[in-house]
Amino acid sequence: MNPRLPRRSHSNPGSEKRLARRRTLRIESLESRLLLAGGLSAPALENANTVQFRFDYSNDTGFFNDHPERRALLEQAGRMITDRLNDTLDAIPPSNSAIQWEAHYTHPATGANTKLPAGFSVAANEIVVFAGSRNLQSLDFPGGGMVRAIADGVNTPFSYSCPATTQAQCTAFGETITTRGEGVTLGANAVDFAPFVASLTFDSRSETIDAWNFEDGPLLTNQVRFLKLAQHELAHVLGFGVSSSFIARASSGEFIGPQADAAYVGAGHLPLNGGHIAQSVLDEQPTIMTSSIQSSGLLSEIDFAVLDDVGWQVLEDQRPAVSITSSADALPEDAGAFELTATLSSPHPTAISIPISLRGTAKWQSDVGSTSGRFDFAANETSATLSLNLVDDEVYEAAETLTIEILDSVHAKLGHRSHLPLTIYDDDGFDLAYVPQTDPATIGSRWSAPGDSQPHGIVFRAGATETLRVQAIGADPIKAGVLLYDQNHDIVGSYGAMGLDSAQLTAGDSYVLVFYPRTTADEFQIDLAGGLNSVPARHNVLLPADVNGSGSVTEVDALQVINQLNRSGDDASVDAPAVTGSGYYDVNGNGLITAVDALRVINFLNTIAVAAEPLAGSLVPIAATVGLVPIGQSRESNPVRDPEPDRGLPVPSQQNVSPPAPDASASGWIDWDQATRTKSIDHIFGMSIAADPSKESGPFEASDLTGALTF
């Protein structure tokens, strides 16, 4: 604490031998601890020559006495604080015949104002804390906030009298019990704080106990770190928010102290919310001294800075700093294992373990798991790794977030990067075949993904070997879901929390950008030197057999391929001059337009038919032959025109590729399912092709043909 100031004299004009003084040293009124959350390490050696807590469990009804691990954790919380305090406090002897004193405290099990037991004394450098539990439901906020714990200090009546001493002796005892050898601790001029007794009460309701993490191991979503909560309350015991020296530095919603000003990274003085640090500070730096404790850490540098300004002599934190890095900020669900790396700023002489906290919408073990949940450092090593595994299930899930946070402990403080946000993109959320398409011709360097609760896909072909980057502009990471699929339906590229960081495209290959469903529109920056529409896409990555991009596969798609074959002549390249329109003619994605592409469409339709799922209303004229689609006509409903005579095909009658739904019994029409089961491909297409009859009712492959397609 601050250097000892001159002791004040207490006098009573009525007597030099009998003195009575009342001092109220209220540490904190009852208040709520609303928590939004969101292996015991070997303790550091205590320094018996400086301040320390002595926990008294005589009032406990089993919360601590039946659970030694909880006692050990509470005592560790106290040691981790007092190991950084270099203060000394005078002893307070028990009452005797010459000097008598009494004080009251809050009984942790009953809440009653309880007189300290006869013969009670406080050793030098000691603060006695009565610890226990009771049901704190009566203190809950009307709006539903649960009170998890409360801290109270000395209650009234607090008095002392000197029936058999001199004035000087009584005055000296009065200063001992109020200042314990420190400076001014009471009133507007207080610069120090010197408590000698307090109480801590923890909520005993089952829902609170079930939420607490008493092992201080891996911390899961909605778990509450008991060690953190204990430190928060012990800081109040030390005067944070309640001591006269704190109140003297609080003004207009700010805490004004040299150490806090130096530690606060924001502008101006440290913002307050009553006896706590304002919640907004959490956006700037770690603290657990907000009224709603959202951090998983322990007392931070700004918290200790306030204690320093309250009057405690705070030592520099000698623990090494630990930081965390990851191999990725965003991963698809099927990514499997990924590695986290923790680094210490300096080695520790013995092996140590540092646990992690996992928070977010992703669930432990069902979405992500690990065999350890902590970083294990070997002696004198500064690096440790932890492997986490993503669970690839078949359940539709929106993009999920996971914040991985290392927990400061007795062995290490938090470094420059103590947490990592991870976005997990579901790979089962939708079938690519059902993703609505967006025309790449309408996409510029910026595009607004609609907030219509459905995915959107942009099929495109790379015009050159170049890098693609797609980043959300101002969107939350969980809403920034975008994936790039190649034509094999493999997810490619490197992803971050805001989208696709980079993907190397291969010239001529086809891809699809899929934007996840969202309820509100989000804008994306799309960086690609040539743009998404530099060359026409000829392979539909979403649904390859959907040649015309209508979102479904019908006989029209097969006819579209045949029409283009008629145009292309001998040049099968997708980039041939005769390839026109916007059709996805390259069904198998090999860069060529051949009869195999038409057969792929037939196979797709035939598979549906064999599975007893025919396309409703898909009827084709048996005798119809297919000719060229006139240039400039719509690809969805083009009439078939007479083929050129030199192609060697029979001249068809004028037919419409997409006829109105006919009467099933009408002459000249047959259901597509029946056609594919009973007619060979030359009947369907009106071509002179000899096919293996044994294959008539199954999928057609190029090897099934004993003749060649001639045009």
What does this structure look like?
InterPro entries: CalX-like_sf, Dockerin_1_rpt, Dockerin_dom_sf. This is Dockerin type I repeat protein. The protein has a 5-stranded mixed beta sheet with strand order 21-23-19-17-25, with no helix packed on it. The longest helix is centred in the C-terminal third of the chain and has 16 residues. The protein is α+β, with helices and mostly antiparallel strands and 711 residues long. Helix 9 crosses helix 10. It has 11 helices and 37 strands. The N terminus and C terminus are likely disordered. 15% of the residues lie in helices and 24% in strands. It has 4 domains: 230 residues, no CATH class; 105 residues, CalX-beta domain (Immunoglobulin-like); 96 residues, Jelly Rolls, CATH 2.60.120; 150 residues, no CATH class. The protein starts with 19 loop residues before the first strand and ends in a 26-residue tail after the last helix.
